[in-house]
Specification:
241 residues; alpha+beta; seven-stranded mixed β-sheet; two-stranded antiparallel sheet; 9 strands; 28% strand; globular
């Protein structure tokens, strides 16, 4: 089903955006867990009522059982396209003081995250800076990040904000329009780089499939169209006309 606008009537009256985003996040997780993610990975949807809706794809820190299918062989049949842009970056220095407690059988490790943008993420500079800082933190730790922005009531260039958080001039992106952008960070020849796969979105058009990076050489397809359609079916939403 083509992308719908949940931020204006009639859908904003019958199916508010936060309800649909929650269903969309759940549909993404369900489809990823249904044979898309390799063994040892699973997707969990999280809803923050004060901010964004997100999916965290966590990698279990566990040894594989004898005879188990490897992660690489499980996804070798799908290869993402070349990135739309590659930019040299210097990750910001951070001071962290924390106490980590782990169970000796192993804890889940965050491998990737899908961020469904909320209106609050775009409504003021501090909110956009906080959102960008969150994405940068994930990327700096080696997590893949996909930012899906279908908010039609506010206009902001979160891609440019992410670049500003890194102290570099923005390149690429979709100039503040609706978008789905996949990011990953790599280190090549001693230089840190940010790679991005920008995809413009448009109400009434089919959504793309974007790469969800779980590691430096491991990506799986995130089918936004299939998950969007599944969420519409779950909520009994029919396409107008």
């Amino acid at each position: 089903m083509p992308l719908l606008d949940h931020f204006h009537p009639p859908l904003s009256r019958t199916h508010p955006w936060w309800g649909f985003h929650g269903a969309w996040a759940a549909a993404m997780a369900r489809l990823l867990n249904d044979g898309i993610l390799p063994p040892g990975y699973y997707a969990v949807p999280f809803l923050d009522r004060d901010g964004s809706v997100e999916i965290d794809v966590a990698a279990l820190e566990e040894s594989q059982a004898t005879g188990a299918v490897s992660a690489a062989s499980h996804t070798v049949s799908w290869t993402p396209s070349a990135p739309g842009l590659a930019v040299a970056v210097e990750w910001p220095a951070t001071d962290e003081v924390e106490v980590s407690v782990f169970h000796d059988e192993g804890d889940p490790r965050l491998a990737a995250t899908v961020e469904l943008v909320s209106p609050r993420n775009k409504d003021r500079p501090r909110a956009r800076e906080a959102f960008a800082a969150k994405c940068v933190n994930h990327l700096q730790r080696g997590c893949g990040v996909v930012v899906v922005d279908v908010v039609t009531t506010r206009r902001a260039d979160l891609h440019a904000d992410l670049f500003a958080a890194l102290g570099v001039d923005p390149v690429g992106g979709v100039a503040g329009g609706l978008s789905a952008i996949s990011y990953r960070s790599i280190s090549r020849d001693g230089e840190d780089q940010l790679l991005a796969w920008p995809n413009p979105l448009e109400i009434g058009r089919i959504l793309p499939t974007v790469p969800l990076w779980l590691g430096s050489d491991l990506a799986v397809p995130l089918d936004l169209e299939a998950s969007h359609t599944a969420a519409c079916v779950d909520l009994r939403i029919r396409q107008a006309g």
